[in-house]
Amino acid sequence: MQTTIYADGIANTQLIDGVVRFDLIKMTPVTEEKMTVQTSGAIAMSLPAFLRAYDQLGSLINALVEKGQIQKTAPKEIASSDLPETVKSTKSTSLKDVLKKTQ
Question: Cα–Cα distance between 49 and 57 in angstroms, integer?
Answer without folding.
Answer: 12
